[in-house]
């Protein structure tokens, strides 16, 4: 797929992720024991053979920049590899994007300078492991102006899920964004395939009309009034929409099922991420661990049940971690107990502390907090 | 090429025949160790942590896997514009060209490589040991003493001294005598095979050694005795950290088991002296319901459904329900099926132990299942036996 470029937008609304995204972009949200969400989009692009990838950043992007670096882990560090596109100020641009359309307008120069004919445009809060090649091929064959990748089994909830209605030829006939009563089971994965030049035209027109939102103002409008020939391509594999704390929690818990892991981490399409050089996880003394995912660098002396432990987590003697997600370098000290908690990076549950949350409402402990 | 103060040369061409089936198809430095490393990660990480950023890796025996592993050197930050890691196989010159005849000859053949960097000092390393060492501290000692050659030594228990190359020194650590495996040692300072030479002296003695047709072109047997004979300034540098030779099946197994000690005798958690490795890129390991893991190291990508006790599991190992692994080293991608039993054993990369098979015994020598070998259901592998996939 030499003639395709990729563009990842990471400036989405993250209000429902609360504390988890107060210090980072959704794209940089740690998931699955050692990854960030953006790893999945980046790896999917790389497995598609896309070499020219732009990442549009908006708020709190330092953790994202730190994570992606030169793009080496994704083999995107070449001469024409990764382009991180932070917001910037110009006379007509405030550097703050109201929506994706603003971000695209701001980066139209990157689009103009890229030589590829086609573009894959994605968001950064949908987790999947996909080779976009089939969607690109379907797009070219269908002769559509733009193709939206959709799913009939996307998991996760939120108020900005978009539903598509398609006719028998795969043409999208209508689009509903966050409807109270959806009339379709096809949800958009917010992965778009189109010609780069056409995207540029849509952006110019939209911006000239003072519009901000790509999906609502460009796609929905043009689909519903029939002025754009938009097709759907069904992604048959799993996809997770991560837009709320509960959705984040459920996604990580779903990973404890082998069939979910097998789909998100197939042997022929590994998910790349920043390497930390931890040694393997170490089980000591009376450690008891069952039904859990454990990353490298963990030291386990206590009990871990039905949980996901990120790199470098310490579970001390007599501590109990149940139904919880513990991010990197967090510590659960001697005799402490947590249940249905999400511990952000470097947080500490002190000796004999107890944090038991109801299953329907996991507690989030923010980064670096000591309890 | 910019001038470098010190260039490292890593001797990685030996077969390591005492590792048997494990080095049948790979060079010894590429042998896996410690759940996620290969032996060569230790000298390479030591170099980068010591600020030595030109490393020549001399390969000869079965180099493909080692070459692929080193790649551009990026895991060790050795992919540089000025310097980096260089794989150096023997090559032809004019009408001649020959294999590396010995350790000294291997360096002799690469004099042009070293000369490109116009260094003051050359560090000679081997890819046989697990240790964390600051070569820069050794270099400072070399410079302070005004030495022509500094040899790193460790003080071994006296009763073990007859197994090593022993250096006798005066009270200032100046070497007076070198004895290979002495029956009655006068010192317990054993050579670690880590040398720092002043480049001009190294070059001179390599050329003299090459001219001597009777020489076996070996540092220990020929070059060092020749320098001592000429009353050159040879000093020892004492290293007192963890150091383990992993040249045999038993010692490789022991070195892995050392990582399960409390506290760990070699601190691999040390953020100031990371040991880097190429990453296989796998998700965290899964310990399933009903599984049990005790006193073990488990790497990313493993799926554990059985019982693992006092063992080291490398990336992507699968352990089926009811399988029992005790005191074992299971290398990347190996599969241990349901109900299989593995004790005191090394199971090499991508080996397959079928349901109900038994590998190793509770006592005695270490059993080894070679890379890609298959042990069928109901079969057993006795202590000390090595199973070769090619012989199956």
Distance between the termini of chain A: 50 Å
Any low-confidence stretches of chain B, pLDDT <50, length ≥5?
A: none
- The number of helical segments of chain A is 9
Name the CATH class of the largest domain in chain A: Alpha Beta
Shape by Cα distribution of chain B: globular
Average pLDDT confidence of chain B is 94
Helix content of chain B: 10-25%
Folded structure, characterized:
The complex is a heterodimer of chains A (371) and B (392). Chain A has 371 residues and is of the alpha/beta class. Chain A has two domains: 4-264, Alpha-Beta Complex (Spore Coat Polysaccharide Biosynthesis Protein SpsA, Chain A), CATH 3.90.550.10; 282-365, UDP N-Acetylglucosamine Acyltransferase, domain 1 (3 Solenoid), CATH 2.160.10. Chain A is 22% helix and 27% strand. Chain A contains nine helices and 28 strands. In chain A, strands 1, 4, 5, 6, 8, 9, 10, 11 and 12 form a nine-stranded mixed beta sheet that branches. In chain A, strand 9 (162-166) and strand 10 form a beta hairpin. The longest helix of chain A is centred in the middle third of the chain and has 13 residues, at 196-208. Chain A is elongated. Chain B has 392 residues and is an alpha/beta fold. Helices cover 19% and strands 30% of the residues of chain B. Chain B is built from eight helices and 31 strands. In chain B, strand 4 (54-58), helix 2 (64-70) and strand 5 form a beta-alpha-beta unit. In chain B, helix 3 (103-109) packs across helix 6 (199-211). The model of chain B has no long low-confidence stretch (mean pLDDT 94). The A-B interface holds A 32-35, 72, 255-256, 258, 261, 264-265, 270-273, 275, 277, 279-285, 287-296, 308-310 and B 34-36, 74-75, 259, 262, 268-269, 274-277, 279, 281-300, 303, 312-313. Strand 14 (281-283) of chain A pairs antiparallel with strand 18 of chain B, so a sheet runs across the interface.
């Amino acid at each position: 797929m030499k003639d395709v470029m990729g563009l990842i937008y990471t400036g989405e609304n993250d209000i429902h992720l609360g504390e988890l995204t107060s210090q980072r972009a959704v794209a940089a949200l740690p998931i699955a024991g050692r990854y960030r969400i953006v790893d999945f989009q980046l790896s999917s692009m790389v497995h598609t053979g896309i070499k020219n990838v732009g990442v549009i950043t908006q708020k709190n992007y330092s953790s994202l920049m730190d994570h992606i670096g030169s793009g080496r882990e994704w083999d995107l560090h070449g001469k024409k590899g990764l382009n991180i596109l932070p917001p910037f100020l110009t006379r007509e641009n405030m550097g703050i994007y109201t929506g994706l359309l603003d971000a695209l307008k701001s980066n139209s120069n990157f689009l103009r300078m890229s030589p590829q004919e086609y573009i894959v445009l994605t968001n950064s809060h949908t987790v999947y492991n996909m080779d976009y090649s089939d969607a690109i091929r379907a797009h070219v064959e269908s002769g559509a102006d733009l193709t939206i990748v959709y799913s009939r089994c996307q998991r996760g909830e939120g108020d900005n899920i978009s539903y598509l209605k398609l006719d028998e030829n795969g043409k999208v006939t209508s689009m509903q964004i966050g409807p109270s009563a959806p009339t379709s089971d096809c949800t958009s994965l917010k992965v778009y395939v189109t010609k780069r030049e056409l995207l540029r035209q849509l952006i110019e027109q939209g911006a000239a009309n003072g519009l901000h939102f790509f999906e609502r103002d460009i796609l929905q409008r043009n689909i519903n009034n029939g002025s754009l020939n938009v097709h759907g391509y069904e992604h048959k594999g799993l996809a997770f929409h991560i837009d709320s704390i509960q959705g984040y929690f459920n996604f990580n818990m779903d990973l404890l099922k082998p069939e979910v892991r097998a789909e998100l981490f197939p042997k022929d399409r590994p998910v790349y991420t920043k390497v930390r050089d931890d040694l393997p996880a170490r089980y000591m003394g009376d450690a008891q661990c069952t039904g859990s995912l454990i990353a490298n660098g963990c030291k386990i002396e206590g009990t871990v049940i039905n949980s996901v432990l990120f790199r470098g987590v310490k579970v001390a003697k007599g501590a109990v971690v149940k139904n919880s997600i513990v991010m990197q370098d967090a510590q659960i000290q001697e005799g402490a107990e947590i249940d249905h908690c999400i511990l952000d990076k470097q947080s500490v549950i002190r000796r004999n502390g107890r944090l038991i949350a109801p299953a329907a409402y996991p507690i989030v402990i923010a980064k670096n907090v000591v309890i | 090429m910019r001038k470098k103060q010190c260039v490292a040369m890593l001797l990685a061409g030996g077969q390591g025949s005492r590792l048997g089936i494990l080095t049948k198809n790979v060079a010894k430095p590429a042998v896996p160790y410690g759940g996620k490393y290969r032996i060569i990660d230790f000298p390479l990480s030591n170099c980068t942590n010591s600020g030595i950023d030109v490393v020549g890796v001399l390969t000869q025996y079965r180099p493909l896997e080692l070459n692929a592993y080193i790649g551009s050197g990026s895991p060790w930050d050795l992919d540089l514009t000025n310097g980096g890691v260089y794989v150096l196989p023997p090559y032809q010159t004019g009408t001649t060209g020959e294999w590396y005849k010995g350790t000294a000859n291997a360096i002799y053949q690469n004099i042009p490589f070293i000369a490109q960097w116009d260094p003051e000092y050359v560090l000679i390393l081997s890819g046989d040991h697990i240790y964390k060492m600051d070569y820069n501290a050794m270099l400072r000692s070399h410079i302070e003493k005004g030495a022509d050659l500094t040899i790193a030594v460790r003080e071994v228990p006296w009763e073990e001294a007859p197994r090593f190359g022993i250096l006798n020194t005066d009270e200032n650590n100046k070497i007076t005598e070198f004895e290979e495996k002495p029956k009655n040692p006068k010192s317990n300072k054993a050579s670690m095979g880590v040398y720092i030479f002043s480049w001009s002296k190294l070059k001179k003695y390599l050329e003299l050694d090459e001219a001597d047709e009777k020489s076996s072109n070996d540092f220990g047997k020929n070059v060092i005795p020749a320098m001592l004979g000429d009353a050159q300034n040879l000093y020892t540098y004492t290293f007192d950290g963890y150091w383990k030779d992993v040249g045999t099946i038993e010692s490789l197994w022991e070195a892995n088991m050392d990582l399960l000690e409390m506290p760990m005798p070699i601190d691999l958690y040390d953020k100031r002296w990371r040991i880097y490795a190429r990453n296989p890129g796998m998700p965290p390991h899964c310990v399933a319901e009903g599984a049990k893991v005790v006193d073990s190291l488990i790497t990313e990508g493993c799926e554990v459904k059985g019982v693992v006790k006092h063992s080291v599991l490398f990336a992507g190992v699968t352990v089926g329900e009811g399988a029992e692994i005790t005191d074992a080293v299971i290398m990347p991608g190996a599969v241990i099926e349901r109900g299989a039993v593995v004790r005191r054993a090394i199971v090499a990369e991508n080996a397959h132990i079928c349901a109900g098979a038994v590998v190793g015994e509770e006592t005695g020598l270490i059993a080894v299942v070679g890379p890609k070998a298959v042990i069928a259901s109901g079969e057993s592998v006795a202590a000390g036996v090595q199973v070769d996939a090619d012989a199956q």
